[in-house]
Amino acid sequence: MPDPLDIRIYYEDTDCGGVVYYGKYLSYLERARTEFLEQRGVILTTLMQEGLQFVVVHVDIRYHSPARYADIISIYSEVQEVSFASIVFKHRIIKKDSNVLVSVSRVKLACVGKDLKPERLDSKLIARLNAQ
Hints:
There is one protein chain. By secondary structure, the protein is an alpha+beta fold. The chain has a single domain (5-130), classed as Roll (Thiol Ester Dehydrase, Chain A). The protein contains three helices and five strands; from the N terminus they run βααββββα. It has a five-stranded antiparallel sheet with strand order 1-3-4-5-2. A hairpin with a 3-residue loop joins strand 3 and strand 4 (86-95). The chain starts with a strand and ends with a helix.
């Protein structure tokens, strides 16, 4: 299993109830995907220079328990599915100190060109995505 991304929860991440604001998880997942891709040699700036980018087209998050200020969460990311122009990531977030499950999510990304029309993923990119 790939290395998780650890994130410390700051006060700015929390809502008036003292827990991580639900929308903040989208930023955490974005960071985790970027790290996942870069660990496999997929550099987003290079793709952008080639005229390709990934856009989020669907997100499904199931929250299991709250994360709070000063917690450290670990985000485990994996590629669940790859098609000709899309990738589905599965992310699992746990509290690092207690292994309590915080959330599980699926995020679908489409590969698009500068015109935002779908672009085929090349075989080298697919091989890097599938490298666990």
